[in-house]
């Protein structure tokens, strides 16, 4: 008797406590894996088709009437053969079906674009993967029978059946008198119109309800997608190590750090040793912790209105303002917030610090 590997029944997300990183989600997107709800797509296509059917009903009725008249008038005519009948039928059939195909295609594409946040082109989902041949029974049963998604899908199907049944019951019951009285109306058209109106209301209301369920399903799928892509602490560390040397990633990290530091401009100016100005276009705040830093550090910088605000904050907090056009412009363009000033500006900065009596204040 063969033994079953108990790892098949181990929780798929065991140890995965960390939220997926932007890099992992981006890779998933590049491979065509995103959070989306086929339920929402189908319900929108259904509702679009129903609304189009209601809008085109009179026109479709005329087309069907023309087709039937043609067939009845020519069914025994020797000059009209089977090929002509087939051509006429195909023409009317396409005329009636093509509008629904176009609307269904447009609604489906738009629904996917909204859910996917743009176009995604990837061949990964259709590439053959031989590891899928291996029967991971534990994961299969967990995903299809014992997971939150499986329970939600079962409840969703039951709710759809119950809701649609209730809608049909309520609408038919409210129109039952009119439906029954239509039996005594001479001519079938009035009775058909009565039934068509009731059926249209039922379909539209059912479509709206299904779209609502589809929206709920989309958020559940989005939550489940993030859960499935959770990472272990080790995976996060490993990914960070792999990306640490990536120039693009380092650039994004530097930009994020600069933005974070720039958001704290008032505090940085208050604690600065001096603010060097252009005087109107640029302002750069620097601070030097002797014994800790090799040279002063740029703690904040700004231009135009931001520079004026920095000067105002400096005056209000008795922080020295020093006008030095080339130095302010050079530091603004060549130094990032949080970085030690470039060595080329050390001599000029030393003169500034001597002018404000920095050494005397520290002593």
Short description:
With 363 residues, this protein is mainly alpha-helical. It has helices at residues 22-30, 38-74, 82-116, 137-144, 148-174, 176-181, 188-228, 233-244, 247-262, 265-270, 305-316, 325-334, 346-355, 358-362; strands at residues 274-277, 282-287, 297-303, 321-323.
Task: Report what the structure shows.
With 363 residues, the chain is mostly helical. Helices cover 64% and strands 6% of the residues. The chain has 14 helices and four strands. It has a four-stranded mixed β-sheet with strand order 3-2-1-4, sandwiched between helices. A hairpin with a 4-residue loop joins strand 1 and strand 2. Helix 2 packs antiparallel against helix 3 and helix 5 runs antiparallel to helix 7. The radius of gyration is 36 Å and the shape is elongated. The protein starts with 21 loop residues before the first helix and ends with a helix. The N terminus is likely disordered.
Total DSSP E strands: 4
Major β-sheet profile: 4 strands, mixed
Radius of gyration: 36 Å
Report the helical percentage.
Answer: 55-70%
Query: How far from one another are the termini?
Result: 86 Å
Shape: elongated
> How many H/I helical runs?
14
Which consecutive residue ranges, at least 5 long each, have pLDDT under 50?
Answer: 1-12
Q: Topology as H/E string?
A: HHHHHHHHHHEEEHEHHH
Beta-strand proportion: 5-15%
Averaged pLDDT, please? Answer: 78
Chain-wise SSE layout:
Layout: H1 22-30, H2 38-74, H3 82-116, H4 137-144, H5 148-174, H6 176-181, H7 188-228, H8 233-244, H9 247-262, H10 265-270, E1 274-277, E2 282-287, E3 297-303, H11 305-316, E4 321-323, H12 325-334, H13 346-355, H14 358-362
Helix pairs in contact: 2-3, 2-7, 5-7
């Amino acid at each position: 008797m063969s033994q079953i590997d108990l790892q098949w029944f181990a929780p798929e997300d065991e140890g995965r406590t960390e939220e997926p990183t932007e890099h992992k989600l981006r890779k998933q997107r590049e491979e065509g894996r995103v959070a989306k709800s086929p339920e929402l797509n189908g319900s929108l296509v259904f509702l679009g088709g129903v609304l189009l059917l209601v809008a085109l009903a009179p026109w479709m009725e005329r087309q069907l009437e023309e087709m039937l008249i043609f067939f009845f008038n020519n069914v025994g005519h020797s000059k009209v053969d089977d090929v002509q009948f087939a051509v006429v039928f195909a023409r009317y059939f396409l005329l009636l079906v093509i509008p629904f195909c176009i609307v269904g295609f447009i609604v489906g594409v738009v629904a996917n674009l909204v859910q996917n946040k743009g176009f995604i082109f990837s061949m990964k989902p259709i590439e053959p993967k031989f590891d899928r041949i291996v029967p991971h029974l534990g994961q299969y049963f967990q995903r299809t029978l014992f997971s939150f998604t499986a329970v939600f899908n079962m409840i969703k199907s039951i709710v759809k059946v119950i809701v649609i049944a209730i809608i049909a019951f309520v609408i038919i019951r409210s129109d039952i008198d009119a439906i029954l009285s239509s039996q005594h109306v001479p001519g079938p058209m009035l009775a058909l119109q009565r039934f068509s109106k009731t059926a249209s209301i039922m379909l539209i209301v059912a479509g709206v309800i299904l779209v609502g369920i589809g929206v709920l399903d989309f958020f559940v799928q989005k939550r489940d997608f993030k859960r499935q892509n959770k990472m272990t602490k080790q995976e996060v560390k490993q990914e960070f190590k792999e990306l640490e040397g990536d120039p693009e990633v380092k650039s994004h990290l530097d930009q994020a750090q600069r933005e974070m530091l720039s958001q704290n401009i008032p505090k940085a100016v208050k604690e600065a040793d001096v603010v060097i100005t252009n005087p109107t276009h640029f302002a750069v705040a620097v601070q030097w912790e002797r014994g800790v830093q090799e040279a002063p550090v740029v703690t904040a910088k700004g231009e135009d209105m931001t520079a004026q605000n920095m000067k105002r904050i400096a005056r209000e907090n008795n922080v020295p303002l020093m006008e030095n056009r080339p130095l302010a412009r050079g530091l603004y363009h060549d130094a990032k917030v949080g970085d030690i000033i470039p060595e080329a500006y050390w001599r000029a900065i030393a003169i500034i610090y001597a002018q404000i009596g920095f050494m005397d204040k520290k002593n």
